[in-house]
Each structure stands twice: as structure tokens, then as C-alpha cells.
Amino acid sequence: MPFPRKLLNEGEDVVLDIHPHWWFFTGPVSVLVLTIVGAVAAREVDVLRVALLLGCLASLGWVAWRYARWSTTNFTITTDRLIFREGVVAKRGKEIPLERLNDIAVSQSVFERIIGAGDLTTESGGERGQQVFTDIPKPFLVQNVIYTEMERSGARDAARAAGLRQPSIPEQIEKLDELRQRGIITRAEFEAKKTQLLDRM
Questions:
Q1: Rounded to two decimals, what is the model's pTM?
Q2: Residue 68 confidence class, pLDDT cut points 50, 70, 90
Q3: How is the chain split into domains, by residue range?
Q4: Could you tell me if 124 and 139 are in contact, meaning their C-beta atoms sit under 8 angstroms apart?
Q5: How far apart are CA 65 and CA 67, in angstroms?
């Protein structure tokens, strides 16, 4: 299930939306396979076979439940935030604005390197400064995507701040003089406004 677009802010876009690594399924799938193999091998022992078939049904339910959890767990990177949501019925989530992230670390065991999974640890400002996200597929790629979006977010904020910067008084006088030279305002209007600006210095 993809991250709901209705939860995005205005002007915000999803950059990466992933579910946990397939390793998330290994426990229930392993038990299911073992009970199926046992049920086939014990076809001559009726009581054991019935018990193993019941075990197969229970394991199948476990796999279905694990799939429901997997499909409703989202690790999402947007142009503004890092979002983690999970829960089949009751939902819980974490959101970290990109500008508050200080560091993103990846940890992998040898086995996790082989299967392409790992844990992602983020450091951010606030009460819960450190967050650990487990079973992340291709964690180094995810780390790079987060850093890229952090840089882009910083560049956008800087551009926005530059656009909102109030021109200095000499710059305002210079613009007024340009308007006077183009005949948009009279010399008297220019002098009056210039006097007002100089009084504010």
C-alpha cells in the first residue's frame, strides 16, 4: 500500500516510498514450509498429520498477518520530511523534518550485506533525538536519497529566504531613482520618498 497522497503538505512530493525488506517474512514462511513438509512426510501417522495440517493453517494465518503488517508499514522520504508509518488497524508513526536531521547512520551485519538489508539510525534535534529503523532494503541507497533531499531542502530554504529579504535603504533609493529616470514618478515624489527612507536610517 503506497503512502497516502492526502497526507502530503501543499507543494510536497514523495521521493521514495518503501516497505520492509523481504527478510521480514522469513519467520512465518519458514514455519509454514516446515509444517507442510512434515505433514507430507507423516501421511501414515494420522494424528501427527492432523496436528501438522493444523500447524499449516496457523502458519498460513501468520504469513497473512505478517503480509498485512508489511503492506501497511511505510518508510517514506518526501521533499520536506522523513515519515515512518505502521499499523494494520491502529496506526502509529514518526515524522522528522529534513531540516532537523543532523546525521544518518547505516549498520549492516555480514548476512544483511549479502541480502541487501540493514538498519538506519537518524540523529535529529528534539526530545527523541535518535531513531532506529530496522529491515530497510538497500540502506546505503536510502541514506544517499535522504542526504540529497536534505541538500535540496536547504537550497530551497536559502532561496526562499533570499526572496523574502527586504532591500536595504540604499537599494530602495536606487530603485526609486530608476523609476524617476523612466518618468514613472516625478522628481518631487522621488525626493519626498528619498527623505522618508533616509529618516529611517
A1: 0.67
A2: very high
A3: 5-163, 169-199
A4: no
A5: 5
